[in-house]
Amino acid sequence: MLRVAFYRTERWKLLSENPFKRVRLMRIPEQQPTYLTKEDFQKLMALVTEDWLKDMLVVAVATGMRRGEILNLTWESIDLERRIILVRNVNGFQTKSGKTRTIPMNDMVFSVIWKNVSVPHGKYVFEYRGAPIQESLATHRFKIYVRMAGLDPKIHFHSLRHTFASWLVQDGATLYEVQKLLGHSSLTMTQIYSHLEPEQLQKTVNRITCLGLNI
C-alpha cells in the first residue's frame, strides 16, 4: 500500500524516487475459492422462506453477479427480449471496475426476472416491502440459512460468485469464458479456478492421437 501511495507522489512530482520501490513484496499462499456444491446449494434453497432472497440466490449463482450489483439492479438494465442483463453504474452505485458488462440470462434467471416483472414493482428488480433491499439484511439472512444447513461457516454471499465460476469450469467452460462473464480485467484473476478443470484438460490432451503406431 505504501509503495502504491508513494508512486502517486512521484507522479505529482513531490518526490524524485519512490522509497519503497525496491521493497520485496511478501508471498501470499494461494487460497482456493470457497464455493458450494450443487447438493449444498439445493440444501440451502430448501430452507429459505423469503421469496426475494430465493430469487437473489438464483440470480447470484447463475450469473456470478456481486451482491451490490444484484441489489442495485434496475429494470432499465434488463433486456427481456435479448435475455441480457447490463451490469453498469447507476446513481448511488458504481461497479467494482467502473465498467459496464453484459451477462446473458439462462432459463432460471429469465424465469426469476419474468416473475418479478409481472407484479407491481418500483425502480429496482429486487425489493422488500416496496423498498430497496439493504446489503446488511441480505447478508444477515443468508448467513442464518448457511448455519441452518450446516454448511462451511466460511461461506458468505460472495461465495455464490465463486460457485458460479466453479460450476462453469467443472462443466467444461474455458477460463477465458469465465473471465468475460465475471468481468475480470485479466485472466490472471480467473486462474484461481484452474484447479477445477483437470477432467477438461484430460479431454484436451486426448485430442492428440498417434494413429498407426503399435505401442
Number of helices, counting only DSSP H or I runs of 4 residues or more: 10
% residues in beta strands: 5-15%
Helix/strand order: HHHHEEEHEEHHHHH
Rg, Å, rounded: 21 Å
Spatial order of strands in the largest sheet:
1-2-3
CATH topology of the largest domain: hpI Integrase, Chain A
Q: Would you report the number of β strands?
A: 5
- The helix fraction, in percent, is 40-55%
Shape: globular
User: End-to-end distance, in Å?
Assistant: 57 Å
CATH homologous superfamily designation of the largest domain: Intergrase catalytic core
Number of domains: 2
The level-1 CATH class of the largest domain:
Mainly Alpha
Q: Can you tag this structure with a few keywords?
A:
hpI Integrase, Chain A, three-stranded antiparallel β-sheet, 215 residues, two-stranded antiparallel ribbon
Structural account:
There is one protein chain. The chain is mainly alpha-helical. It has two domains: 1-30, no CATH class; 38-196, hpI Integrase, Chain A (Orthogonal Bundle), CATH 1.10.443.10. The protein is 44% helix and 7% strand. The chain has helices at residues 2-11, 38-47, 51-63, 67-71, 107-117, 135-148, 159-170, 175-182, 187-190, 198-205; strands at 78-79, 84-87, 101-104, 127-128, 131-132. The protein has a three-stranded antiparallel sheet, with no helix packed on it. The protein has a two-stranded antiparallel ribbon with strand order 4-5. A hairpin with a 2-residue loop joins strand 4 (127-128) and strand 5. The N and C termini lie far apart (57 Å).
